[in-house]
Amino acid sequence: MKVALTAASALMLSTYAAHAGALDRTGQSVAVLFEKGRYAEFSFGSVSPSVSGVGTAGVGGGSSGNMSEDYLQFGAAYKADINDTWSYALIFDKPFGANVDYPTGTGYFAAGSTAEFDSNAITGILQYNLPTNLSFYGGIRLQTIAAEAVIPFVSGYSADGDRDFGVGYLAGVAYEMSDIALRVSLTYNSKIEHELDTVETSIALGGPNASTTPVDTPQSLNLEFQSGIAKDTLLFGSVRWTDWSEFEITPTNYQTLTGGGSLVSYNGDIVTYTLGLGRRINDTWAVAATVGYEEPIGGFTTNLGPTDGQTSLGLAATYTKGNMKISGGVRYVMIDTTETRAGAVAPAGIFRDNDALGFGIRIGYYF
Hints:
Layout: H1 2-13, E1 39-50, E2 53-55, E3 71-81, E4 86-93, E5 98-101, E6 114-129, E7 134-151, E8 157-177, E9 182-189, E10 192-202, E11 206-217, E12 220-230, E13 233-242, E14 248-249, H2 252-257, E15 264-265, E16 270-280, E17 285-294, E18 300-301, E19 310-321, E20 324-335, E21 338-342, E22 345-351, E23 354-366
């Protein structure tokens, strides 16, 4: 019962099957660290956002069309015990990302603008387990990122930032009571500094012009919890704070062209809340449901990231057979209204009634 319910809840707490705030795509969970014995898992997710807006009179009106492309997510993890005291885990994920593609021929001022942000991370974690149900853990995260953008309405601007490697760390503490499936963990993820070698071109400044663009992926704090509340019933949830107010992508020429503007930046930090309920149906099947919420930051968003705040609903099921468990889930995200700015024009675009639909599957095996 505990294995099946935990699998369903872990799937729903993963954000690869959703459309999280800012560039967040996985939530950087360390739940695999608490699997029993030696364990490996592989995950796959597919997300289909629908994000469109309408231009105001100041930019000539027009509808943007869906500017957010579908994307896929992949992940893998391995966990093992060294002895009764020490455990370790290795995690691969794609923690941050963006896929922007404004359709052409719409009459919208940003038509033809594209952008992509890609990341890959490998995290190694070592856990020290005390006999008092308390554990401490920490590790190193190795990460690469790359970014590119084409912004026709800003002097025919384009930028290509080469992939860069950076190193960060994480540290956490957890408390468990296995007889009632209780676990509470608190994990800090450090920011990771990057320096992207960037080539920029534009009509006004010519090019190609070489520069270096600093990009720091944000620090964050994850609180994850679960507890049995009745026979075959598990309450679980998470709170994730991410320091997006300190994140920006500001290439040198773009800053000059826009009088200090950034390709991507955010007006404040984002806190994501998730609460769910899991239920064992029989020895083979368990199900879970969640609700999630992100409060809007407010203010104007950039044209490459016109989302701010959301509410989500999710369902998952886990099938357990022998040493294998297979979990599948779906999450529907309702994205709040936001407005963008274009130079001195604010608002330039109004984005409302948008949503996203995500599917995910995870296959785990105990050795």
